[in-house]
Amino acid sequence: MGRGRQKAKHTKVARELKYFSPDTDLSALQSEIGVNPRLAEDLQKWPEFAADDSTTSESDDEAQSA
Hints:
By secondary structure, this protein is an all-alpha fold. Helices cover about 70% and strands about 0% of the residues.
């Protein structure tokens, strides 16, 4: 006979977990995934990974016109 009350409690807990949305600390998130403080140093070490938009857009334009 006690199964109904137990199931209701489990359902209540599951519903609370499903719809619970804690407050998000956006400033902490921004600092965590923010700008790499060593970006300039990394780009000097590996210049081939530096994004040079002028060369990629020109090659894309040539490929589309051909």
